[in-house]
Amino acid sequence: MKPGPNKYRIVYIHPRKDFEGVKSAVKAISDCYEDIRRLDSDSSLPDEDFALIDFQPRLFELPLIAVIVDNSGRIVLLPTLFLADTALASRSVTGDTVRTYAEALLPWLKYVDDSAITLHDVTEETIGVYRAKVSHEKIAGSDSKYASATVNQRVVVPAIFHEWGQRRNTMPSSLGKYLCTADPNNRWHPLSRNSRHRFSRLQRIATPRVIKKLPVSLGEEEIRRLFAITPMPYKLMLKWSVACGFRRFEICDLRISDLPTPEQIESQSAGMMQLIMLRKGGKEVNVYVPSTLLEETNWFVLTERRVAQSGHENALFLNAHGRRMSRQTFTRAFKKSAKIIGSRATLHHLRHTFAVHVLKFLERRVNDGVQLNSLKVLQILLSHSNVVTTEIYLQAYEISGGDAIAALDFLYGATL
């Protein structure tokens, strides 16, 4: 790789959208890699690394594939193969894992080029200097530095990339050897954190610990104002977020066939209905939705939903062109409404709001003598695989509770 400004860019491929079927996808990738074989006459890669088409049918089932290309449009093979392996190992239903890995890999490739070295020359010292650079770097167009979580991601992803290259013996380096020395026969998994030795070495490479922020919960008045100015169908989508704690991709992926019929809703006396849906990590789980929200959604389908374009008939929420609503479109609409009312909220804050308010209600029930595990109930509602993830909402609840507020009011009064 030769040094040069902005030499690399990411090309995202959505297999099911961009190709007519598996055969057309395999042919396109096969032709592309044959071009690389002819052009890359200096490559020392074994033949099996060119045979990406061997598992291309599996790639066709993925939501997203990231390809690194140089400024002449040629695929940069090693990073692209790494991202393909990462995509196959990921359980993401949106492709966000591959997207974030690609975005973290791009500045690393540029840094290696700017340092006038090859990927094979990278050492622990190289990535240590890179870590210091990223830690002190300012975000483009801003005076702010990157958050510690972003810096960690920028550093750890290249480290995993070099470990991958060492284990496959296609990109040996001092850094890769360092990460693989203790357990060279261990089966490699690009997203694995099971090896304690591997994790400890990645920790040494990473930056200081990530500062965890408490969830941000919106007040009732702020929610009312958001709903008052947000047009349909975005207003209804916000209701799904606040009332059910759904993530934005889960709301955009809702289908008409997911909804119960009016007769099924009427037969329920509990006020809640159980739906089966695909959530983060590719988990198919039961979710609980208020019957009143389901009734409103069914009415929306009958009266206000746009006419769907071919192939989008089952999508519940459609954009102005009659296609399935994208996360980006939903986010833009929310930001517009938030800006109008002077709110700094994000869509994910609505999920936080759901969690904190549900926990407050459940804790009140516990205080009234009802026997239940409020944290466990919330874990199920949020579909968290680990209760530790849910515990942060308990911290947010305790901080915003009446006793904490009273204590702060007292201390403030004492300063007057």
Describe the protein:
This protein has 416 residues and is mainly α. It has three domains: 8-205, no CATH class; 220-345, hpI Integrase, Chain A (Orthogonal Bundle), CATH 1.10.443.10; 360-414, no CATH class. It is built from 20 helices and four strands. The protein has helices at 15-18, 22-39, 47-50, 56-60, 77-89, 96-114, 124-136, 148-167, 174-180, 196-205, 220-229, 234-244, 248-252, 262-266, 291-303, 327-340, 347-367, 374-382, 387-400, 402-414, and strands at residues 8-13, 65-70, 272-279, 283-290. The strands form two sheets. The protein has a two-stranded antiparallel ribbon with strand order 1-2. It has a two-stranded antiparallel ribbon with strand order 3-4. Helix 6 (96-114) crosses helix 8, helix 17 (347-367) runs antiparallel to helix 18 and helix 18 packs across helix 19. The protein is globular. The relative contact order is 0.07.
Which keywords apply here?
416 residues; mainly alpha; two-stranded antiparallel ribbon; 55% helix; globular; disordered N terminus
Fold blueprint:
Elements: E1 8-13, H1 15-18, H2 22-39, H3 47-50, H4 56-60, E2 65-70, H5 77-89, H6 96-114, H7 124-136, H8 148-167, H9 174-180, H10 196-205, H11 220-229, H12 234-244, H13 248-252, H14 262-266, E3 272-279, E4 283-290, H15 291-303, H16 327-340, H17 347-367, H18 374-382, H19 387-400, H20 402-414
Antiparallel strand pairs: 1-2, 3-4
Helix pairs in contact: 5-6, 6-8, 7-8, 8-9, 12-17, 17-18, 17-19, 18-19
